[in-house]
Amino acid sequence: MAGLGMLIFPLTLSGAPLPAAVKDPHYGAVLYEFYQQNYFSATVNLLTAQQLKRLKHHDADSELLLGGLYLSYGLHSDAEKIFTKLIDDAVMPEVRDRAWFYLGKIRYQKQLFTEAETALSRVGDALDESLQEEFRILKANLLMAQEKYTEAATALEGLVENEGEQKANYARFNLGVALIRASRKNADQEKGEHKKDDREVVGMNLLREVAELKSSASDQKALRDKANLVLGFSLIDTMPVVAKQFLQRVRLQGPFSNKALLGLGWAEVKLQRYEAALVPWEELATRERTDPAVFEALLGKGNALERLRAFPQAMQSYKNAIAIFERELDALNNTVVAVKEGRLWADLLGQVSRTEMGWFWEAELLPDTPEARYLPVVMAEHGFHEAIKNLRDLWFLDRNLGRWVSEVPALEDMLALRRATYEAQLDKLTPEQTLGHVQDVRISRDIYADELTRIGETKDAFELLTGKEKKLMERLSKVEERIWQLSNQPGRHLKRLDNYRDRYRLYKGLLDYEVETTYAIRFQQVKKSLNSLDAELEETLQQQNSLQRARGSAPVNFAAYEKIISNKRQQIALLRKEIKAAFDEQQRQLQEMVDFELDILRARLVDYLDQARFSLAHLQDLAADAAESGKELK
């Protein structure tokens, strides 16, 4: 069925859904990078956290997320090992179902359809809601890939009924295609004359529903154009008038406009309205001349003019087409040369400015060079997207490793600085002197402890006087001695001696009262100070032992770190060598893919060129024959 194509839903990168509660902060950091679409950083952080055993509350979730990240980068074998292990470990049902889902997805991408179908059949009712839609789409895609159109139609019916309006429109389109293919496959198997059965009628009606969508959303407009294009091309041979109606609904500036204009022209030719066919083909001939539809329109113009017996105009049209085809062949050859010399890939990768590897290749990053004009035609193939994404990811990894190489000397400098600092401070560490000082302090402490015990037994509060109180006591003793001296000397001062004695006894009594009443507090404070001193001495001894161990282990640690850094340098060099080999191999494969597609385009251009030359030569022969017979070619 011409123009009947399945519009497959994209299978997106689906990692672990956000858990109800993130109990491990490091897993939260991984999820933050993941939902920011920084998949490389998320993978690195996840592997680091797993190695340091910091994800004890999210062990299964983190494994699922890692498997999904591996899957997104095409590491199917590594991802499959993770999901198989999760299944073998008899994890919770929701984890098991997600693991089976991912296994089915991996096997589908490997085109192991039977194994994929087996894995998907093991998915139970515990699959997370966020993956349900992709699960149903994957099952429908798998059935379509196996040409089980009837079963695919059944699976798609559920999507039509249960999804939101916009997603349901995609499902209607796919369901319509599946029903029509199922009908025609059955007719082919019976080898009878094709007659529309109920499935094809239903399929056509579903496509008509999509073709009549009323939506301003860009993706829905494109879907509507696709449905009209499919319906139009399917009816050109049998119902060209109706086919025109569908093709005329396709937007003139949409992604399917070129094919629609081409189809309009052929529908008019089918109705033998050659002059009307020139209208869409004239418009198409002015468009980008890398599209095969434009090439076909250039050739069709001359054919339509020839059928209108406008031979001079037809000859000129063929001449113009020949000139265009020859120029495009030259441009195409330049693209081939650029591909073989590697210039195209350098320009392509030079457009990438993002610091993260991504999941999709941005088509808008195509280099603005003459050699890249034909890349959009090649990029229509999914394999090209995968290959260029792989090439881009390898380029990113090599650039990242290159940055790590530049950071290794900094690590070596840091280690050298720490070693120099350690050696400079080593002479200042005198364990013997420190230990002797601690022993001296401990002897003094024991003397004070014995004295405190004696004071506790005698309850002699005056042994616990503070320095200030001792000075006051000494002053009172001097005052007492002075009063006694004055009492033995004649003079007028004898009248004031009683006053002196009274003041002395007052101050002496106040001091004695203060000392006697605070004895218990003073005793406990001194005892507490001794306990604090014991703790400080113990800590000092522990620190001393730690220093002793550090003196012994530091040289060993420095050597170990030095070895680790050296090993990392070698690992980076080895990885860069492997990446370089993988990059070269991927570039070779990509070049083969591009060469193959460009060869197909070149062959088509050569065929169009030959047809134009043959048609022009035929008209020139007719003109020559007419001239010989004295008639004008009309």
Strand content: under 5%
Distance between the termini: 39 Å
How large, in whole angstroms, is the Cα Rg?
46 Å
The helix content, as a percent range, equals over 70%
- Structural class comes to mainly alpha
Order of helices and strands: HHHHHHHHHHHHHHHHHHHHHHH
| Mean pLDDT rating | 80
- Tally of helical runs: 23
What are the segments in which pLDDT stays under 50 over at least 5 consecutive residues?
Answer: 1-16, 359-364
The count of strands amounts to: 0
Q: What's the helix and strand layout?
A:
Layout: H1 25-35, H2 39-51, H3 59-72, H4 76-88, H5 93-109, H6 113-121, H7 129-145, H8 149-162, H9 165-190, H10 198-211, H11 218-235, H12 240-247, H13 257-270, H14 274-285, H15 292-307, H16 311-341, H17 343-350, H18 375-378, H19 382-426, H20 431-458, H21 467-487, H22 497-517, H23 519-628
